[in-house]
Each structure stands twice: as structure tokens, then as C-alpha cells.
């Protein structure tokens, strides 16, 4: 009996000792692992550009205050022109030196896009959020396709594009004329007109200003931006995906995307039915032609890297619509807002238009070479509003070295365009709206290398030519036909923008007084020389 008890005590003791040894071994093992990870993090951190360390897991997320581009601008002021920071699990590198941005973004290594929750929702389709071969092929294809439909500085196609835009400008002016003396929020009016330009180029679709389908389409986009905003936190802290509410928001986001996809698919199906390879009507037709050609050559399966053809077309339409609508609409709204702040500048633009264009017609693209006051005003609006304040995030396609720092493949690289455009070492008094900064000693328009509203390098904006045509034609026609003023009893609108992917003005209203066009004034054709300086932006 005693020996049995003794035996169980011995067994118990040895089990206890074994357990203690095991626990110790485990503790040592876990400590070594933690130490190795801490050393890794430390080594990675000291090889990264300087910046705040933040907290474990959360990084700098708890310290974010206000608009992200302003937060990053403050960090670059504190730590230097290239900084790193962590937002949850994501490593962010922010660049604010324009030479560095120019140099890096010309390199193949920096043409990647980060892999995030958002990119997995888009599923590696389209052009904006893809990288590698698909991006290269699509960019080249779109570049040629958009040129074919008139996105070019020269040639007869340019005139066709001008005609498309001017149809919308005239419709836009008619809608405004009908508003009479009422104070107007120009946002919805611009939305239809600008959408119509891009939708016409993409898929020969136009909407009327009261079209229920269009209103639904715009609501889906607006709601999509908002829903994406509420999903965004999970980009940085993946465990938030497990919180209640997240799944429902994700589901709603997916449902809206489905509805958008359905709308786009109907347009694609319609195009397939009426497709004629001898007469390509729009960009969608050029895709159908490409698919037809690839199928005929037996390469259909390889096209778009083996991805679904319809889905790729849907995403391309979605990408170009979202890139080409909000940006131009917001810039035009900023232009109106700055004209309310600077009525003397609006007057100077109107006087120049009256003298060069005359009161018998609307401005044309060919006039721009003779309109330095108008052109420099648009450039200054683009600079001071920096409507894409953080550009679009890039990612190195492999680990790279930058000024002795190590940038890992997964890093999110942000070109802080806002900081470049507001840098007092580059621009005299950058907070002041001063279009004359774009006029040189000979009175010609000149853009410095550090003017980057459309980004720079291999992934710079694909729509710059179209954007500049639209900005000029809408802005100059608006000022040519209307005087703008703040509605009676209302204050000047705030200059503080609403920051999202773009920086857009808050809602504001404007009173319009018509400046009717008349017959018989002097125009550029009979009064101005045709000499164009190489410094002038050529359209
Ligand atoms: C005022 C108007 C516009 C501004 C300020 C603007 C600005 C920009 C910027 C800053 C980028 C990011 C470049 C980068 O990743 O480094 C970009 C990309 C892009 N933009 Fe624009 N954009 C405008 C209008 C347009 C229009 C009208 C279109 C459509 C035709 C367009 C199509 C694109 C596309 C497809 C990309 C992605 C290019 C790529 O990933 O390779 N943009 N834009």
C-alpha cells in the first residue's frame, strides 16, 4: 500500500518536474521567437526611412487626426522628404520631394500597386489597381484606344473629341440658363455633363439631366465611396473584419458592385449585338474587336492574362469612369469657388476671352494658345486644390534600396502631391491663389517640373489630355457666358476640402448672371497674330 502511494507520489513529482521542464522549454522557445521577431522588426525599422514608430499592432493609427494628406505633410516637415510609418499592418512610405518622385516613378520597380483588401475585392481586373503584364498591356491598349477617339494634342481626331465635349458644354450652359436668378449648386449639373463626356467615349451612352437611371448610377458610386470608407479600417487592421457589422457592409458593397456590373454588362451585351468591326463607335467596341481578333487567332483564352473578358471590360469601364468623372468635376467646382474668392481674376479671364474669342462664339481649343490668363488660372486651380493630394499609391515590385534605406516589396508608396504643390521652397507664398506664377517674363504660360497634378512617370494619369481639354472648354465657356457671385445673404464657401480619394469642395451655391453672346465683336481671327511660343501649352 505504502509502496503504491510512494510510487504515485514519485510519478506525480516526476510528471510535475516534466511539466515544469516543458513549460520552461516552451517559455525559452517563445522568448527566442519573440526576440528574433523583435530583432527582425528592429532591423527592418532601422533600415526604413525615418518616421514615428507608433504602437504594436496599431502603428500610428491611434494618432491620426484630421485629413490624412495633412497628417503626412506634418510628418514630412518633421522627419524629412521621405518618411515611413505603419498604419496597422501596412507599411507606408511617403515621398514629398518632387525630384525623388520623378526619378522613382520612372522606374519599372515602382509600377506595382499594393495588395490590400480593396484589390482583392476588385479581383485583379481593370487597369488602375493591377500591375505587371496585365497593367502594361492594358495601359498601352487604352493609350492607343483613347488617342483613336480624340485624346490627342493634334489631328482631326482632336476635333472630334472637341465636338463631343462642346455638345455637353452647350447642354450644360442651357441647363444653367434655365436656372435664372436662383442660387445653384453646380455639382449635379457638372456631374451629368462630365459623365456624359466620358460615357460617350467609353460606350456611346449619354444621360439626360433628369434621367432616373443616371441618378441611380451616381448614387451607387457615391454610396460605394462611403461604404469603402467604412471598410477601409480593415485594410490596416485585418482582425476588424471579424467585428459585427463589417460583413453586412461588405455584403452591401458587393451588392452595389453587382448592380453596377449588371448595368455595365447590359451595355456590353447591347454592343455585342450591334457590333460592326468596320465601324468602331467607342472604346468598348475596340475591346470587342480585340477579343474577336484574339478568338480568330486562337488566342482568346490568353487575352487579359486568361481573365474573364466581360469582367475585364466592366472593370475598365468602371476604372475610367471613376478616374475621369470625379477629378474633373471637383477641379471645375474648385475653379468656380476660387473665382468667387477672386472676382478680379474672373473679370480678367472674361476680358481676355472677350478680346481673343469675341462675343459671337464660345471658346475653342485652338484659342488656348492666346489665352494665358485663362490657362494660368486653370493651372493655379490644379496646383492649389491638389485634388488627388496623395496621388495613387504605388508599391515596389521587389525589395528596393532608396538613399540607403530598404523598401520592402509590400510597402505602400505615397507620392504626396499636396506637399509638392504647397512647398514654400518651390512656390512663392504657396497658400495664395496667384495664377501669375505660371506666366514667365515674356508673358507666356510655363509649367515648372514640380507641377504634378496628373502624377508623373510610368503610371501617370492616362486621361491628362482629355482632362485638360474638358477643364479648358467648360471653365472658359462658363465664364464667357456667366458672371458668378456668392448668393445674397450667403457667406463665401469654405476653402477646406472634403478629403477622400480626391479632395473635393464642400457643397456650395453660386448665383449666375448671364453675359449673352452677341454678334459683330472683334475676334482672335481678325485681331491676333498666330505665333505660338514653345512654352505655351499646345493643344
Ligand atoms: C483633373 C483631372 C484629373 C487629374 C487631376 C488626374 C490625376 C491623376 C493622378 C494623380 C493619377 C495617379 C498617377 C500615379 O499613379 O502615379 C491618375 C491616374 C489615372 N488617371 Fe487621372 N486624373 C484626371 C483625369 C482623368 C481622366 C479624365 C481619365 C480618363 C480618361 C483619367 C484616367 C486615369 C487612369 C486610367 C489612371 C491610372 C493610370 C495607371 O494606373 O497606369 N484621369 N490620374
UniProtKB/TrEMBL annotation:
Domain of life: Eukaryota
Pfam family, one: p450
GO annotation (BP), single: organic acid metabolic process
SUPFAM superfamilies, alphabetized: Cytochrome P450
Record's keyword terms, sorted: Heme, Iron, Membrane, Metal-binding, Monooxygenase, Oxidoreductase, Transmembrane, Transmembrane helix
InterPro entries in the record: Cyt_P450 (IPR001128), Cyt_P450_CS (IPR017972), Cyt_P450_E_grp-I (IPR002401), Cyt_P450_sf (IPR036396), Cytochrome_P450_fam2 (IPR050182)
Cofactors named for this entry: heme
Keyword DNA damage part of the UniProt annotation: no
PANTHER family linked to this entry: CYTOCHROME P450 18A1, CYTOCHROME P450 508A4-RELATED
Record-given protein name: Cytochrome P450 18a1
Amino acid at each position: 500500500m505504502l509502496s503504491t502511494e510512494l510510487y504515485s507520489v514519485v510519478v506525480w513529482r516526476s510528471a510535475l518536474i516534466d511539466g515544469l521542464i516543458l513549460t520552461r522549454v516552451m517559455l525559452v522557445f517563445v522568448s527566442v521567437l519573440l526576440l528574433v521577431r523583435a530583432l527582425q522588426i528592429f532591423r527592418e525599422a532601422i533600415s526604413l526611412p525615418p518616421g514615428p514608430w507608433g504602437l504594436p499592432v496599431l502603428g500610428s493609427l491611434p494618432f491620426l487626426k484630421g485629413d490624412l494628406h495633412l497628417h503626412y505633410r506634418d510628418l514630412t516637415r518633421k522627419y524629412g522628404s521621405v518618411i515611413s510609418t505603419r498604419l496597422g499592418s501596412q507599411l507606408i512610405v511617403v515621398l514629398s520631394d518632387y525630384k525623388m518622385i520623378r526619378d522613382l516613378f520612372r522606374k519599372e520597380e515602382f509600377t506595382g500597386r499594393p495588395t490590400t483588401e480593396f484589390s482583392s475585392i476588385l479581383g485583379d481586373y481593370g487597369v488602375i489597381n493591377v500591375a505587371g503584364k496585365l497593367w502594361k498591356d492594358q495601359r498601352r491598349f487604352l493609350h492607343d484606344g483613347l488617342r483613336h477617339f480624340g485624346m490627342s494634342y493634334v489631328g482631326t481626331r482632336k476635333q472630334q473629341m472637341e465636338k463631343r465635349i462642346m455638345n455637353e458644354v452647350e447642354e450644360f450652359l442651357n441647363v444653367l440658363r434655365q436656372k435664372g436668378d436662383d442660387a445653384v449648386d453646380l455639382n449635379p449639373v457638372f456631374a451629368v455633363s462630365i459623365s456624359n463626356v466620358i460615357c460617350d467615349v467609353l460606350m456611346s451612352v449619354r444621360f439626360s439631366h433628369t434621367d432616373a437611371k443616371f441618378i441611380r448610377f451616381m448614387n451607387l458610386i457615391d454610396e460605394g465611396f462611403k461604404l469603402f470608407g467604412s471598410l477601409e479600417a480593415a485594410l490596416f487592421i485585418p482582425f476588424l473584419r471579424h467585428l459585427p457589422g463589417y460583413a453586412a457592409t461588405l455584403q452591401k458593397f458587393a451588392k452595389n458592385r453587382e448592380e453596377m456590373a449588371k448595368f455595365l454588362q447590359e451595355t456590353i451585351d447591347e454592343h455585342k449585338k450591334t457590333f460592326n468591326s468596320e465601324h468602331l463607335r467607342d472604346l468598348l467596341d475596340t475591346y470587342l474587336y480585340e477579343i474577336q481578333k484574339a478568338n480568330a487567332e486562337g488566342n482568346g483564352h490568353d487575352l487579359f492574362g486568361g481573365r474573364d473578358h466581360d469582367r475585364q471590360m466592366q472593370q475598365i469601364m468602371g476604372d475610367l469612369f471613376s478616374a475621369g468623372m470625379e477629378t474633373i468635376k471637383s477641379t471645375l467646382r474648385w475653379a468656380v469657388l476660387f473665382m468667387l474668392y477672386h472676382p478680379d481674376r474672373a473679370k480678367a479671364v472674361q476680358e481676355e476671352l472677350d478680346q481673343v474669342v469675341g462675343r459671337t462664339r464660345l471658346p475653342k481649343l485652338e484659342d488656348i494658345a492666346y489665352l494665358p490668363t485663362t490657362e494660368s488660372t486653370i493651372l493655379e486651380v490644379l496646383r492649389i486644390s491638389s485634388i488627388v493630394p496623395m496621388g495613387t499609391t504605388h508599391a515596389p515590385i521587389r525589395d528596393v534600396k532608396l538613399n540607403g534605406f530598404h523598401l520592402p516589396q509590400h510597402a505602400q508608396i505615397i507620392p504626396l502631391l499636396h506637399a509638392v504643390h504647397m512647398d514654400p521652397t518651390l512656390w512663392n507664398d504657396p497658400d495664395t491663389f496667384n495664377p501669375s506664377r505660371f506666366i514667365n517674363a515674356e508673358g507666356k504660360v510655363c509649367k515648372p517640373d514640380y507641377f504634378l497634378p496628373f502624377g508623373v512617370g510610368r503610371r501617370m494619369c492616362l486621361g491628362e489630355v482629355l482632362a485638360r481639354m474638358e477643364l479648358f472648354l467648360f471653365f472658359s465657356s462658363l465664364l464667357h457666358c456667366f458672371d458668378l457671385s456668392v448668393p445674397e445673404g450667403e457667406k463665401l464657401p469654405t476653402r477646406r476640402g472634403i478629403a477622400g480619394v480626391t479632395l473635393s469642395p464642400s457643397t456650395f451655391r453660386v448665383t449666375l448672371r448671364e453675359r449673352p453672346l452677341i454678334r459683330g465683336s472683334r475676334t482672335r481671327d481678325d485681331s491676333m497674330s498666330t505665333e505660338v511660343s514653345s512654352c505655351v501649352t499646345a493643344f
